[in-house]
User: Fold this.
Amino acid sequence: MYLLFFYTDVVGLSAAAVGTMFLVTRVWDTFLDPFIGVLGDRTETKWGKFRPYLLWVAIPFGICGLLTFSSFGTTDTAKLVYAYVTYTLMMVVYSLINVPYASLLGVMSANPQTRTEFSSYRMTFAFGGSILVLALVEPLTGLFSKMKLVEGHPSMLFGWEMTACVFALIAIVMFLLTFYWTKERIHPIVEKKGSLKNDIRDLCTNGAWWILLGASVMVLVFNSIRDGAAVFFFKYNIIDASNWSFSIFNGTFTLVTVYLVLGQAFNIIGILCVPALTKVLGKKHTFLYAMLGATVLSVLFYFLPNSCVSGILIMQALISFCAGVVSPLMWSMYADIADYSEWKTGRRATGLIFSSSSMSQKLGWTIGGSMSGWLLSYFGFEANAVQTENSLNGILLMMSLLPACATFISALFISRYPLTESRIRAISVDLEDRRKED
Assistant:
């Protein structure tokens, strides 16, 4: 949510250059995830297949997070090269820890409804972590920046570096606790390792996987464009945004923080409703209706006047509720697809299939993040300057109509999803019988 803003308004890079960097660094890394999934499937330790990566990669993950929110050099070229290197490292390490972490959902329980509940718990605390971060970013950066002066002014760069350090330490501790407090219970019907060629062929011929992949990518495009534009929207479009600011811990707590935290809170409310909604509607239709709801609400957002701050916050709450509903469903549905693939082929590739979820995240971030930078440049955005009418309208489009296009496409994809609740239950029962026979 803050990375594009950090690179443009703190480091001083152009929006177009950052958009291109997001594309270059993320595209190749997106396709690294399936290989991490294959590696996890073929890992054998006393701790299991996926848990060890949380132990091994937690500290490198924290270090790379800190390096990403820092800068080096005095020229734009040096700063851009540093950004390329550190962000590339961040995405590689993210794959190494996130793919195994996500894959745990597929090996902790065989019950589809339990997986949905597990995924809901996971995403509830994930967004809880986001609330913690978003609520503290501005106060912490304000506090730390005052500890170092550059030419008599607080150093915003130092403030961001120290804030990233705080969050990195929290992340390391949380990953280590996850390693110690989880257990892998589900084992493949056949323990012998299949060939990589067969695993990839199984994945590429899995129609349900392709449909969910397309829907998931569009969800992330929606999130990345809309969230990436939010900081710019409140800084440049909402003239009276400063009237909402107040001090906490010697730092400033502004309207954009209220907006982002409110969004994460309603993400959580949406997540908490998922188990009940899926029992009534099923996973497919819950996903579909949530995306259609986000589409309609995002279109309505465009017509809100900038002076209607309460309306903007209400719309943020409703849109975030819809987005929150989808978050745990994606992970739970990938677990169902892992079962479907094993039932169909006799081979289980949990890590490979769950890596596709991480891949869809990165692909969505790649498309959405790159488009965000390019769109800002196209609309004539200039950091820390008075924006033109065209630029202001472009930022508004990035908050409304453009994300609405992504959610509508996602709804079209998921409407074709073939794995109904009854079919998944039948597959689960059949797989359990086969495991007992083995």
Remarks:
- The chain has a mean pLDDT of 86.
- Residues 103 and 354 are 5 Å apart (CA to CA).
- The radius of gyration is 22 Å.
